[in-house]
Amino acid sequence: MSVLVFVEGLNGEIKKSSLEAASYGSQVAQQLGTTATAVAIGEVHEEALAKLSEQGIGKVLYDADDRLKQFVADAYVKVIAKAAQQESAKVLVFSNSNIGAAVGAKLAVRLNGSLATNVTSLPKTDGGQFVVTRGVFSGKAFADVNLAADVKIIAVKKNSFEISQNAGNAATVEKLSADLTDADFAAAPKETVMQDTDGGVLLPEAEIVVSGGRGLKGPENWHLVEDLAKALGAATACSKPVSDMDWRPHHEHVGQTGITVSPNLYIAIGISGAIQHLAGVNSSKVIVVINKDPEAPFFKAADYGIVGDAFEVVPKLIEAAKALDK
Amino acid sequence: MKILVCISNVPDTTSKINFTADNKEFDKNGVQYVINPWDEYALTRAIELKEAKGGTVTVLNVGEADAEPNIRKALAIGADDAIRVNAKPVDAFFVAQQIAAVAKENNYDMILMGKESIDYNGSQVHGMVGEILGIPSVVPAFKLDMVDDSTARLEREIEGGKEVVEVKLPFVASAQQPMSEPRIPNMRGIMTARTKPLKVVEPTGAEAKAEYVNYSKPEKKGGVKMIDPENAGELITLLRNEAKVL
Ligand SMILES: Cc1cc2nc3c(=O)[nH]c(=O)nc-3n(C[C@H](O)[C@H](O)[C@H](O)COP(=O)(O)OP(=O)(O)OC[C@H]3O[C@@H](n4cnc5c(N)ncnc54)[C@H](O)[C@@H]3O)c2cc1C
Ligand SMILES: Cc1cc2nc3c(=O)[nH]c(=O)nc-3n(C[C@H](O)[C@H](O)[C@H](O)COP(=O)(O)OP(=O)(O)OC[C@H]3O[C@@H](n4cnc5c(N)ncnc54)[C@H](O)[C@@H]3O)c2cc1C
Q: What value does the mean pLDDT take over residues A290-307?
C-alpha cells in the first residue's frame, strides 16, 4: 500500500500545483504510515524529478515516451494506472487542474475508486473512515466527504497547501513503461497553442492576480492592469463583460462561468463584485478592491479597499510597487 | 445526428447557500433552481449543430420530479425530447452510471455536458461517462465543429493554452464559454415544449462512491480596511508588512 502522486511537467519543470500535490501526498503517506511515490508525465528534466524529495517523495516513476509531451487522456490514464498497480497504491493524489480532473475521473472508473476533486484538507482517518473537505457551491461552502471505496482519488485545490521543503537525499528516478499503443493516442491533439504570456505569469498558477472590470472603460486603458501586474509579478484577469466585449481574451475571465482562482492576493479594479464574479475569486486569501463607488458590493468581500478613481489610484500603486525591493 | 445533452438542476447563481440545522443537508428553502449555466452552452451548441446538419437533440437529467420545470425549459430552448432518470442524484459516479446506461440504449453520436455543475463543482461526470462507455471525453471544450459526418473538431482549454483535437463520433465533451451564445426561450418554444415527449425512466442499480457527511461555510472576513485614495501607495506597504502577501 502506498500513496501515488501524479505530477505534471511544463517546459522541463514541475508545475507549482503539482509540487503542492506532492507535498500533500507525502503528508497523507505519513499519516497512513507508508511512503509516497510520484508518477511524472510530460516534459520534465530528471534533476527536477529527483528534487521531489524536497516535497517528501522517495521514488519517481517516469515514462519518457515522446508522445506524452502532449496531454492525451487515455494514454495518461494508462500510465498512471500502471504505476498505481505496480506500487499497490490505495491513495492517488492529483492537482485539481484541467488535466488532473480529466484523468482523475477516468481513473475513478477504471480503478473502481472514490473520487473527490477540489479538496482543501488532509484526510481525517479515524474510525476507519477517510474524510476530506472539498469546496462546493462555488466557494460558498465546504463539504466533508467520506471516500468509502478501497482506492481513494484526491484532486487538491490549487494554492491550498504549502509546498514543503525537506532536506535529504534526492529521490530515485525509475523508468516506467506502460506499453502504450497507437490506439491510446487516437484522441491526441492535432495542435497545441500556448498563450503568449509575454514573460508574465499564467493565471491558473498565479499567486497574485490583478483583475479589471467595466470600470476601466475600454481595452486602451488595460496598461493600468498590466503595469501593476508586472510590478507585482502577477497574472492579469477580468470580469465577464470585459471578455464578452472582447476587451480581453476569454481565458482571463474569472467567476461562476469563467475560471476559479485562489491566489494569495486578488486585486479588483473597477469591478462591482457581482455574486457570480465573487464565486470565482472568493477563496483568494487577501482581496483588495478599488472602486469609485463606496456602495460597490465587492467591498463587503474585501480585506483592503480604496474608494477612488482607478485612473488616479492605480498609477500611485504602480509607483509604490516598483519601489518595493524584491 | 443524434445528440444527447446532460443537464443538472442547480441553485440559481445568486442563491444564498444554507444548510439544515444539523449541517447534514443543503437547505432548499427559498432556493430557485436553474439549468446549470455551463450546460446551456452545451445545449445551444447542440441545437445549432442540429439546425445546420439535421438530427435530434435529447436532454437528459438524473434527478427527481422537481427538476422538470428546467427540463421543460431546455425543450423550450429547442431540444426535441427529454429523459429524466428518476433518482436522487447523490454523487457523480452514480450520475455517470445513469447517463451511461441511457447512452448505451440509444447510440448517440455525441454526448455534451457542461464543464462543471455549479453546486457540487465536481468536473468529473463527463470523464466518467467517457470511460464507462469506452469513448473519448474532450474536456473542457470551448469550440465544437463538424469536420465531416463522422469527425468533430474541438478546441479544449489547458492551463496556459489550448489544444485542437479531432475525434471520431461518438464522443463526450464538456462545454464552456464561448462555445455558443445561450438562448432565451421564446413564446413559441414555451408552447411547443409542453407537448414534447419527456420520458421518465427508473435508475439502474448503481452505487454511490462518495458519501457526503457534513457541510460548513467559510469563516466570515474580518471586515475591510479602507485606505485614503490620496495616499494609495500605503496599500502596497500594508500588503507587504501586514498581510504579508508581497
Ligand atoms: C448566470 C450568470 C453567470 C455569470 N458569470 C459571471 C462570471 O463568471 N464572471 C463575472 O465577472 N461576471 C459574471 N456574470 C455577470 C455579473 O452578474 C456582472 O454583471 C459582472 O460581473 C459585472 O462586471 P463588472 O464588475 O466588470 O461591471 P459593472 O458591474 O458594470 O461594474 C463596474 C464597476 O466599476 C466601477 N467604476 C466605474 N468607473 C470607475 C473608475 N473610474 N474607477 C474605479 N471604479 C470605477 C463602478 O462603480 C462599478 O462598480 C454572470 C451573470 C450571470 C447571470
Ligand atoms: C449530497 C448531494 C445532494 C444532492 N442533492 C441534489 C438535489 O436535491 N437535487 C438535484 O437535482 N441534484 C442533487 N445533487 C446532484 C448534483 O446536482 C449533481 O448532479 C451531482 O452531484 C454531480 O455533481 P458534480 O459536481 O460532480 O458534477 P460535474 O462533474 O461537475 O458535472 C459535469 C456535467 O455533468 C452533467 N451532470 C451533472 N449532474 C447531472 C445530473 N444530475 N443529470 C444530468 N447531467 C448531469 C452536466 O452536464 C454537468 O455540467 C446532489 C448531489 C449530492 C452530492
A: 97
3-state secondary structure of B169: coil
Q: Which CATH number fits domain A203-323: 3.40.50.1220, 1.20.810.10, 3.20.20.410, 3.60.140.10?
A: 3.40.50.1220
Q: Do A265 and B246 touch (CB under 8 A)?
A: yes
Does B233 contact A319 at a Cβ distance shorter than 8 Å?
Answer: yes
Fold of A2-185: Rossmann fold (3.40.50)
Residue A240 has pLDDT above 70, yes or no: yes
Ligand nearest to the CA of A259: 1
For chains A and B, count residue pairs whose Cβ atoms are closer than 8 Å.
257
Determine the pLDDT at residue A326.
66
Please name each of the domains of chain B with its CATH number.
2-213 (3.40.50.620)
- Does residue A80 have a known ligand-binding role? no
Say if A2-185 and A203-323 have the same CATH topology: yes
- Residue with the bigger pLDDT between A142 and A197: it is A142
Name the β-bridge partners of A162: none
How many angstroms away from the CA of A204 is the closest CA of chain B?
6
If one residue of B95, B118, B213 were mutated to test the ligand 2 pocket, choosing by the most ligand atoms within 8 A of its CB, it would be B95
Counting ligand 2 atoms within 8 A of each CB, the residue from B6, B33, B117, B121 with the most, and so the one to mutate, is: B117
Residue A82: closest CA among A95, A70, A68: A68
The maximal CA–CA distance of chain A, rounded, in angstroms, is 62
Ligand 2 centroid from CA B175, angstroms:
15
Residue A314 · residue A290 · CB < 8 Å: yes
Q: Tell me the average confidence (pLDDT) per consecutive run of 10 residues in chain B, 246 residues long.
A: 98 94 94 97 98 96 98 98 96 96 97 97 96 94 96 90 92 94 94 97 90 93 93 96 94
Q: Which 3 state secondary structure label does DSSP give B102?
A: helix
Give the domain ranges of chain A.
2-185, 203-323
Exposure letters B8-17 (e unless 16+ CB within 10 A, then b) = bbbbebebeb
Q: Considering only CB atoms, which chain B residues are within 8 Å of A145?
A: 210-213
Cell numbers for B57: 437533440
Q: What distance in Å separates residue A188's CA from the closest CA in chain B?
A: 7
How is residue A138 written as a grid cell? 462555488
